[in-house]
Design a protein that fits this description.
Bound molecules: adenosine-5'-triphosphate
Radius of gyration: 17 Å
Order of helices and strands: EEEHEEHEHHHEHEHEEH
Strand order of the largest sheet: 6-7-8-3-9-10
Number of helices: 8
CATH superfamily: P-loop containing nucleotide triphosphate hydrolases
Shape: globular
Largest sheet: 6 strands, mixed
Pfam families: ABC_tran (PF00005)
Structural class: alpha/beta
Oligomer: single chain
Protein name: ABC transporter ATP-binding protein
Organism: Nonomuraea rosea
Domain ABC transporter: 4-228
CATH topology: Rossmann fold
Number of strands: 10
GO molecular function: ATP binding
Number of domains: 1
Distance between the termini: 25 Å
């Protein structure tokens, strides 16, 4: 079953002579339970693709569906994003005045959950990625790698059915990076759809499929033979 569908999606940044055609007529489906890795050179449109797939940006032309919903017709896109989509950005975006646990709780509290329940969920997901001991620290008290793990916990909390990860292993050592990939893979196997941008072939090996972008177009798409790759 397809969970995310991009059809003939184009995105032009700017206008006239300075216009940048970041994506040009991209078609992509990600199924429930599927992990798709997006690879490609710098500037090929990977982040633009992720932002469009999660409704953070709108296409210049073409359509994006999450589940049954055409994002162009969704009234409360922010609510849809909060309930269905988890993002791990390159620049982390943790709120400095909140502890790690409070950062992870925040999306659930915005969903209307009581604090005690949101905290329970936050602690469970921090435990899942082996980061419970970070719960009561503030972002400035964490290393780059620890911040990354907290940002990942925030993306996983709740019943997010679509996870978008842009270089989620960027600041992490190999062991922790592998742990994160194992967690993403487990979420996927439990029914999430995952889009992962990575420069590193070793992480792409965790994917079901690798999509290569070049100059805003899908240049190639390869199914990964999982057993041999991991
Ligand atoms: N807001 C924006 N305004 C103007 N141009 C943009 C904007 N966002 C992206 N671009 C341009 O669109 C193209 C695709 O950018 P994008 O960030 O999607 O590529 P990327 O493959 O993710 O690159 P990287 O690997 O360096 O993160 C690039 O030429 C970039 O400069």
């Amino acid at each position: 079953m397809t969970f995310v569908r991009l059809a003939e999606v184009a995105r032009v940044h700017g206008e006239g002579a300075t216009a940048v055609h970041a994506l040009k007529g991209v078609n992509l489906k990600v199924d429930v339970g599927e992990l798709v890795a997006v690879m490609g050179p710098s500037g090929s449109g990977k982040s633009t693709l992720l932002n469009l797939a999660g409704g953070l940006d709108r296409p210049t032309s073409g359509t994006v569906h999450i589940g049954e919903q055409d994002l162009a017709t969704v009234r409360d896109l922010a609510a849809l994003r909060r309930s269905s989509v988890g993002y791990v950005f390159q620049d982390l975006n943790l709120i400095p005045s909140l502890t790690a646990a409070e950062n992870v709780m925040l999306p659930r509290e915005l969903d209307g959950l009581r604090s005690s329940r949101a905290r329970q969920e936050a602690m469970a997901v921090l435990a899942e990625i082996d980061a419970e001991e970070l719960a009561d620290r503030f972002p400035e008290e964490l290393s780059g790698g620890q911040r990354q793990r907290v940002a990942i916990a925030r993306a996983l909390v709740g019943e997010r059915r679509l996870l978008l990860a842009d270089e989620p292993t960027g600041a992490l050592d190999t062991h922790t990076g592998d742990e994160i990939l194992r967690t993403l893979r487990a979420r996927c196997d439990a029914g999430a759809a995952v889009l992962l941008v990575s420069h590193e072939p070793r992480y792409a090996a965790w994917a079901d499929r690798v999509v290569f972008l070049r100059d805003g177009m899908i240049a190639d798409s390869t199914n990964v033979s999982l057993e041999s790759a991991r």
